[in-house]
Predict the structure.
Amino acid sequence: MSGIAVIHNLDGRPVDRGLLSRMIEAAPYRGPDGIHVWTDGPVGLAHAMMCTTVESLRESQPLVDGDAGLVLTLDGRVDNREELSALLTAKGCRPRDDTDAELVLRAYECWGEDSPAKIIGDFAYALWDARRRQLFCARDVLGVKPLYYFCDGTIFLAASELHQLMACSRVSHELNEGQIAEYLSAELRNRDETFYADIRRLPGAHFLAVDSAGVRLNRYYDLRSTADLHYANDGEYAEHFREIFRESVRCCMRSNAPVAATLSGGLDSSSLLGMAASI
């Protein structure tokens, strides 16, 4: 659970480094392993580091590749590391190391706006592409990792938590009564609105690109577009599910500390613990 904060001045003004620092420091519990800020003219990225994997102990974020003109701040975990690394190497975008941030940065370098669809895991990130003068943000398919943003036409802000954006005086505290009503009635229909009128949530399975023309939002994954699987009998379906389930649990156990499980007494948590124990 690392944290990110982003400022992109669409009018070209230099970033207020003090504001960026206040945004990232508004969630200090996300950065027990260090907080770092990077700025370059109208763009600034900040990262609050919480190391949860062995590889993350070697990470330094925001991650900068001056030759490629890319800078990344990532809150997340890449689960298909071996597959993604092999795809990148085959494309000639060989990762410099085995950290998750490096894999995400290389994926963007290789596939651009198609890159989020290549990544399996929980993630929210912002990446500055200096050559295209574009800020690119993406969120995982299920929307596990949060990402909120604000844009008034002259400044774009993004952060892991809603209250981080309140560090900027331009962000109004005006309530979004429609969204509050949906929440109280337990009928949430809007995936991008929040309790505040000026603050949006990037939906899961979406990316947004920000440049001088404004904000462009796109969906990069849709479960309905995936191919159907057909097997000869129930046993083959069960075996395929068991393989996917085992790999999913194995990826979530990639930790630099002991992994614990909370049991509810139902089938789901008991199955997770049983698979983890067998691994």
About this structure: The longest strand covers residues 70-78. The chain has a mean pLDDT of 95. The two ends are 24 Å apart (CA to CA). The chain has seven helices and twelve strands.
